[in-house]
Amino acid sequence: MTRDKPTFTINEDTRQGWWETVPQLGRILIVDDEPKIRSFIGRALDAAGYATESADSGGEGLSRALNSHYDLVILDLLMPDLDGRQMLGKLVSARPDQPVIVLSCVADVAAKVDCLERGAQDYLTKPFSLAELLARVRVRLRGEAHGHGEAHGMGAPLPRPHAQAPGSAHPHAEVFKAGALSTREKSLIALAVAHTVQCPYCIDAYSKESLQQGADLEQMTEAIHVAAAIRSGSSLVHGVQMLEHVHKQVMG
């Protein structure tokens, strides 16, 4: 019995990095005065394939947003200089179609209603689930791509970040070329790593890539078993670490 090969292909001209296979990419501005939160959100969105920039105050955020194009602004409320509500009002007044998600520790209904009336498309309270934030970002950018592309001068799909000039080499493309390991083996490794770091976008991308390179379901499932073993081993080590810490505190 012969196995039919996958019908889809990955164009080598666009295969310049794993993010090139991730749909719904966009350019996002993160405005928050807390460095850890900016870094946390930025790393998550970067890993998901989005291009991110950040600002640590409402004044800087407003300047960036008015002098450049962003597919989405993620905005904190309580900031020095210019607070989030003021920035939101000024930004939407100048750019009525600018999508904004407010991300704040202010959880009362009045604050949410006020921001929505000022022009925000969504409001998420801290502490928040990263999975929920990513889901809301995907929904918002998907809505913009389908409903407001022309208003932003974006009749085509959202632009891919980190675009390379035609014919230029990209380090990710070099890494995935056959060497001591075949392209299929490298794709299976990437799939296992994607599951280990729990990146849903990477999982989709490398599942497709593994199939494209000739891997079958059994091989891909074994790769996931390896990832699960690594994660369970890490959890066990962390558990032992916790027990040792408790023992020192109790016995010390």
* CATH domain fold name of the largest domain: Rossmann fold
Average predicted local confidence, pLDDT: 77
| Count, helices | 9
Low-confidence stretches: 1-24, 148-171
For the largest beta sheet, what order do the strands appear in spatially? 2-1-3-4-5
Which CATH-level-2 architecture of the largest domain? Answer: 3-Layer(aba) Sandwich
Strand count: 5
Classify the oligomer.
Answer: single chain
Radius of gyration: 22 Å
Count up the domains.
2
Strand content: 5-15%
Main β sheet profile:
5 strands, parallel
Gross morphology: globular
Briefly characterize the structure.
Helix content is 51%, strand content 9%. It has a 5-stranded parallel β-sheet, sandwiched between helices.
List keywords for this structure.
alpha/beta, five-stranded parallel beta sheet, Rossmann fold, 9% strand, globular
